[in-house]
């Protein structure tokens, strides 16, 4: 790629020289008028000439670019990839200056347009795993809320996430809460949000996912024809795993009907589905976590999914995303329902409405909404451990909340997570964080003598 850029640059320079030597005026170049038909007007003396310093500066910049390009063309792909990811750190301070929602919008647009680095290096073998019959080249995922409308799935998976979860998607488009609704607490590595399910709705998201679906399926089949060893143990990522997180409309009275609509419209594109009943910003939503409500809801959604036509692979697994603000009794109820109805997985957890001591001195902590990031780590990890024990490790759990390093991801795995997700640390750290977390996690596993992720799952609960 570097070679291509350098060659294009050199070609452009030679075209410029040619134009200059043929004395093609700016006028005829722009209008396309032939130089033979109309003699070029003499170059105006008013055109400013570069000063000597200017020429020296331009020369130096050009030499640097050409020299840099030539040098880059000699380095291997892995080193070049490393440079690109490291270079993204340079834009983090710029993003930090912007309003959080504008920064987020820019980041999603950049990923949607492919203006982000692509991870070309294979994931460490030790990170590969298979869950729900799906192959993950690494267990690090991007959690819901970042790409709510599935605008940038390819770009985000290309960054090297093992999986990306889009949504929450509501059946009918809705604006969400008034802005501002996202607040940074940079000192604490945290965010408070009260977005309230701003969503373009299931139809818009289905259109986007449908357009990518064929390509993804082809990539899946070509990557599944790779060797058995590569399939089970990391290696190069295929198209990556796509989760679809479903929400409900604020004014809807029938939550189950909302989720069923989401299942009907979007499940065909999903590698897994999530029922989000834990956002603190939609009134009444968290009550769906109660024993009876959850049971009725999951039954209806499972039935809707299972009555659809499915190919050999079968329907996508159904997961439930829960809050970190649950009592022991709530957790027991959820564990009982999840086991009785054979829920395929649980995501633990969403944001918290609590304000732990570590943020209480920050005036921004008074904003209403769900807190995410570092201050959420202990709370969500404790709930994860409880749920792993309650379900006796029989249900795959996705650990989410406050992960900002490979060591954090490792702690979640030891607390019972098979897969992990993050959002806030990615919002602060950008793309460079992903290869860093993967490398650190692989190091943690090797340091403690594990040969795979499976061996470490729940190690702190035994
Ligand atoms: C701005 C923002 C928007 C979010 N939107 C959603 C959402 O739509 N659906 C959802 O299930 N979780 C949503 N989340 C929660 C995250 O998916 C995640 O569960 C939570 O932030 C904890 O992870 P973290 O500490 O790594 O950020 C959102 C989080 C943030 C910060």
Automatic annotation (TrEMBL):
It is found in: Mitochondrion inner membrane. Its EC number is 1.3.5.2. Binds 1 FMN per subunit. It is a single-pass membrane protein. GO terms for molecular function: dihydroorotate dehydrogenase (quinone) activity; dihydroorotate dehydrogenase activity. Keywords: Flavoprotein, FMN, Membrane, Mitochondrion, Mitochondrion inner membrane, Oxidoreductase, Transit peptide, Transmembrane, Transmembrane helix. Pfam families: DHO_dh (PF01180). One of its GO terms (cellular component) is mitochondrial inner membrane. Coiled coil: none annotated. Its main location: mitochondrion. The keyword Membrane applies. Residues 128-445 form the Dihydroorotate dehydrogenase catalytic domain. It comes from the Eukaryota. It catalyses: (S)-dihydroorotate + a quinone = orotate + a quinol. The keyword Magnesium does not apply. GO terms for biological process: 'de novo' pyrimidine nucleobase biosynthetic process; 'de novo' UMP biosynthetic process; pyrimidine ribonucleotide biosynthetic process. Pathway: Pyrimidine metabolism; UMP biosynthesis via de novo pathway; orotate from (S)-dihydroorotate (quinone route): step 1/1. Signal peptide: none annotated. Belongs to the dihydroorotate dehydrogenase family. Type 2 subfamily. This is Dihydroorotate dehydrogenase (quinone), mitochondrial.
